[in-house]
Sequence to fold (391 residues):
Amino acid sequence: MDKVVGKLFCRGVRNYASQRKLAALFAGSKLTKTCSRQYSSTNMMKVTILGAGGNMGKAVSLMLKQSPLIDELSLYDTRTLEGFATDLNYIDTKCIVRSYYGTKDIQQALSKSNIVVILANAQQTDTHSYSGIFDRNAPVVKDLATHIAKFSSKSLIAIATEPVNSMVPMFSEIMKKHGHYNPYAVFGITTIDVVRANRFVAEVLGLEPECVVVPMVGGHTEKTIVPVLSKATPCNELTNDELEDITTSVRQANDNLLKVRSDGAYLSNAFATARFVISLVKALRGQNDIIECAYVKSCVHPQVKYMVTPLLLGPGGITKNMGIPDLSDYEMCLLENAIPLLAEDIKKGEFVGGRPMEDALCDPCDPNPKAARCPPDHCELQSMFGGGDKN
Fold:
């Protein structure tokens, strides 16, 4: 298809979609909607956000509060969120917001949740290395995983705490130890990569971003993200230079943003996270043809146990892993280079998830006599999985 014709086609698709969105907007607006009393239902949709008190958690909460598909939003953090929840409840949507904090409340926060979203992070430090971020956040997620296994083992779990490449395998190993692991129900949220790729492709081709969908495969770090630009829809007429520039822009977007904003990409990340969660909600409510890319347990590549691929979602989580699309030579090269790095990240998460936390994250140089003692093979394992920043 000629690029100019392709652009016109996309604009036509966008115009039609805009008209439908506008009609739907007014159909559900206060100008036209009919009012009915709220009623109790056994089919309530409850979404719990663990780590709702951070910048990203608050932004995700605000976005999800606006969804008519969610009945209850449960916000949990280590400090009180009562004022924030009260503020959200002033918004005139049907979703009821409840807040919880501390270990004493976590059972109530998780109980009867359909979806649990993990956004929790340890307190920020100056390190941005992969290992530094993982070592900081792993204890937090490991503790939450134990509570989820006890109080909400049937929920769909969506993990956005970085680094996702290792955090999802770690979480999965913990759930296995508790006998509650469901590989179809655990997701690493990587939607921000799709959102960015859609935006960059749209900008290059002169299209509306909502018109563009770019699949993703690989992982969720700079050297493991593989945008499948050859399968971008509805148009993928890109030159080689444009393909390389867009791929680099997607991979380096987070680092580039950190150079100008120290608190990171929490607004665009929150938008992408909310989009993914709402897709899960739609799937649980029985809507068909819900497709999202996410990082999940997978056998689509023989060398790795987890990978980002397009997924068909349904009431049980993953209905079908749609696998790796046909890749161009350039994309195949990117994926082949990503696989060894991804495999190491997976092993790191599995190692920490499979051991007691005091063994996994012990410090052999800690002078405190009461500190946890390291296992005999600690140094060997650390040389394999510790190290510097690979990604």
Remarks:
- The first helix runs from residue 3 to 27.
